[in-house]
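For this section, I looked closely at a protein sequence along with its fold in token form, which I now present.
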Amino acid sequence: MLRYFGQPKYKNAAPLVKIGYELLLREFKRGRWQLPADFNSYPPDDIARLLAQTLAAMPVTLDLVSFNLSQTQFVDDAFIQALRRVQAFRHMNLFVELTEAQEGITLAALQTAADAYVAAGIRVVLDDVGTGANQDALVSALMPYTSEYKFALQNFPGQKTAPGTQALLATWRQRATKDGKLFAIEGLEDDHDLTLIEAYHPDVLQGYHYGRPELMAIG
């Protein structure tokens, strides 16, 4: 059984404003919810159906949801068409987060797919920038199509205060400003993390400090 868990996302404002959720796919096996063994094994129509059911149970006032796609899923035209139908079913800001795993997809194919998502009214986020495949070459190639760069602080356990990590944060904040993109930081766990990232003025905040992922209702 597949379901989405949702982690809240907040606009960095005073007071904080809850703007939506990141939806995280989980599979129920051996009596517990866990990460799927292979995200690419699920047909596009199944994912789109679950997404539509999840959106149907959300308040109409909710501004946005984001969900992850691997490179392979991202360029699959069946995914694009299925998500286009979801967008037509529920008029909400849908954000596709392109994950950082390198799967051998060409930049040209990623550009073509990103253009199709934007044409369908679906926004594109580059997840975990600065790690995996989501480095400068890919970011530059997809820059015309993306809305947000997302930095994963949880990828640097025990190194959040290290000069290298702080330099990466500064680099991606500057890059987001230069490219006219939203800058999100996820993996914020406590007040100390908030102090660490204060100088980088993220637009979007996410992490255990604001809420752990919870099983979402379906309609």
Observations:
- The longest strand covers residues 17-29.
- The chain has a mean pLDDT of 94.
- The two ends are 16 Å apart (CA to CA).
